[in-house]
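pinned: reference chain
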Amino acid sequence: MTATARFTGDANPYGGGDPYADYRTADLSFTDLVDLADRRLGAGVIAANDEFFAERENLLRPGPAEFDPGHFGHKGKVMDGWETRRRRGAGADRPHPADEDHDWALIRLGAPGVVRGIVVDTAHFRGNYPQAVSVEAACVPGSPSAGELLAPEVTWTTLVPRTAVGGHAANGFAVAVEQRVTHLRVNQHPDGGMARLRVHGEVAPDPVWLAALGTFDLVALENGGMVEDASDRFYSPATNTIQPGRSRKMDDGWETRRRRDKGNDWIRYRLVEQAEIRAVEIDTAYLKGNSAGWASLSARDGDGGDWNEVLPRTRLQPDTNHRFVLPDAVRATHVRIDIFPDGGISRLRLFGSPTDEGATRLAARHRELGG
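pinned: its structure tokens
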């Protein structure tokens, strides 16, 4: 584990104006990867030992934490995060918490996967953040309760050792543990609050589940698909196009800036594994005056394979789900959608099933990761 952004100590007290003006952050290479703790994927905070000042569920709320300097409740300042009460020692002669005292929260990831980086965001917790944090991971099948996760037979692996953090900051940690993870235990030492938790990585689906489905969306985040690259991420991330469900508002899809040249925009995807694609959906939901005018789809088999056109340049309608049945199944590991000239789409769905070769590699990878 390597800390890629290190902040310690208090931030200055809030002095008015934009509360994010003095927020401490840094470029984190892993944040382009999917957030495995995204509630849209089904993530949740199962339990916490203490949430006296602010509820544990706030940890996984989408978007940055908000701050209202005048918002107080009967317990004190209302914070957009998870905040525990102040710990005390054993008595008047030992008023401070013991070194091992800490608070914890149990997180169910929305999709099992390999964690590549974690962000413990202490936005607006300027003097009431934890002194240090640590993060542990487990791989437990099914839908275990908090009690089952805390049972002595469950093995927890350290992803982030106890490390000092800073207030009002994005504390980033790169993770180098090659293990399939379903749940996290987030610890704050000895107490305090954090605003958000982001868990970036790669989805590692259960091949038995995918085999039972037969035909499924080969590029969906929850099934192990991913965005490899995109020409433009100006208004919203390309990863939105493979999130679960239909888009519910304009910025829940992918929208590019307006082009002033003769080029076009595109996204390149990697499928869960080598597969045969049989049907395609291109959705422009909520993109009305800014949807792409046309789109084409190309596929290739292997990292160095040739790109072959699957769907020729086709007119798209605003705020519409377009469905295409391919005349023949297309074998591929990667797909690229080109939109013309710019604009956006909200979702891309590629329905099919893995080839025998792809299914074999999926099963081998699952075993390798301890699934």
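why pinned: The helical segments are 146-149, 207-213, 356-368. The two ends are 22 Å apart (CA to CA).
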